[in-house]
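Example (one chain per record):
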Amino acid sequence: LPQAKPDHNSTRPPKSRLGLFFWRQRMWFESTFVLSMLEPWEKVLLLSILAITFTLLMSGIFTYLPRHVLLMQRRAVYYLWGQDGDERLLWQWLGLAGGD
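Predicted structure:
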């Protein structure tokens, strides 16, 4: 029997510069996270889980982080000066208050 010839089309670098750039990024990503050792269905499953996790994390950061930062700033004003709600004290203490 003749020896099997594996298909190396996915590992050959493309000719165009843009294609070469994306091919290098793909090879770096696959070799860094050992995706080259996984079956195709395992790659799809792992990358889907990572994409869903990343999407949930980013939506949480953009949705809840601004509100939480504002809450932390209000608590800091209360803890530092013992007064609730007067944010001008913080701006004056930081030296960022306008000349009023």
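Caption: Helices lie at 17-32, 40-81, 88-94.
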